[in-house]
Give the backbone structure.
Amino acid sequence: PAIFSPDGKRLAVRHGHLSLSGDYEIVVLDVVPRKVVTRILCQCFDLAFSPDGTRLATAGHPAHGGPVQLWDVNTGNEIRLSH
């Protein structure tokens, strides 16, 4: 899948499996100019931008109990939430 950020300025695209671990590569692009912002590797089934477009949520396949993760789209770093 591919999704646009709410403001339409960024596009996140999920590419196929890159490894035996089942990781996908998500590429986040600035639409104008066409430029890669970051690349994220994760085991994701679905993607969603935060309302301000600065975060990307990924969810693993529900049938496999995949994790939900939150990413900073500018750095590609996972945001760890404290409990």
Remarks:
- The mean pLDDT is 87.
- The longest strand covers residues 10-17.
- The chain has no helices and eight strands.
- Strands lie at 2-4, 10-17, 24-30, 35-42, 46-49, 55-59, 68-72, 78-79.
